[in-house]
Amino acid sequence: xxxxxxxxxxxxxxxxxxxxxxxxxxxxxxxxxxxxxxxxxxxxxxxxxxxxxxxxxxxxxxxxxxxxxxxxxxxxxxxxxxxxxxxxxxxxxxxxxxxxxxxxxxxxxxxxxxxxxxxxxxxxxxxxxxxxxxxxxxxxxxxxxxxxxxxxxxxxxxxxxxxxxxxxxxxxxxxxxxxxxxxxxxxxxxxxxxxxxxxxxxxxxxxxxxxxxxxxxxxxxxxxxxxxxxxxxxxxxxxxxxxxxxxxxxx
Length: 251
Hints:
- By secondary structure, this protein is α/β, with parallel strands linked by helices.
- The chain is built from nine helices and nine strands.
- It has helices at 47-54, 72-81, 98-108, 113-126, 142-154, 172-187, 199-205, 223-230, 235-249, and strands spanning 2-11, 21-31, 35-40, 62-67, 83-86, 160-164, 191-196, 208-213, 216-221.
- It has a six-stranded mixed beta sheet, sandwiched between helices.
- Helix 6 (172-187) links the parallel strand 6 and strand 7 (191-196).
- The two termini are 36 Å apart.
């Protein structure tokens, strides 16, 4: 389980007269085990900054994160061991094969060769990547790079999974396959968080949705609860209405 409590993050403004930019302001939510929690919001809403604080890449100015009850400020290494992360940057080592990329991360987590091989086989089957597993990643398609990066992130069998816009740039069939894989992670009882600005994706996958705009949580709940809150039948209409209300606050 991952808990975000009143997270705030600012960045320096540009130029001498500029005020600090508030990227995330008082963001809080709980992502439960056995559920997929979606962070939904327009580009620039603060989703990636929020995720970076969850997976310890950034330290919040205030507030805190708890991963399975552990505060990263107390034991960051324990938190990192329990996380599998697909960041917004999908970099893979181009001179290595997909398998070698995955093996390397398994070794970094202290796994033995047999455990890495067994886990790689399971991930390759689940992600449908057997046909390119032993090819050098240079020249991979966007989907192949993303699958390699996901397998690499999950090689150590983490209980908590954080994915930043995992289907960004993928074709329809690859997206469908990845959605099926995320549902398998949920069925295994893992805590899954992913960010997106694609309404259909969130509606198809998420048990709970956290709507973020201008660095703030403007609504959260199940899809049905969001529709009820916005008094809209269609989830997309509900989202637009909720975002519009927040924009009105900042006008």
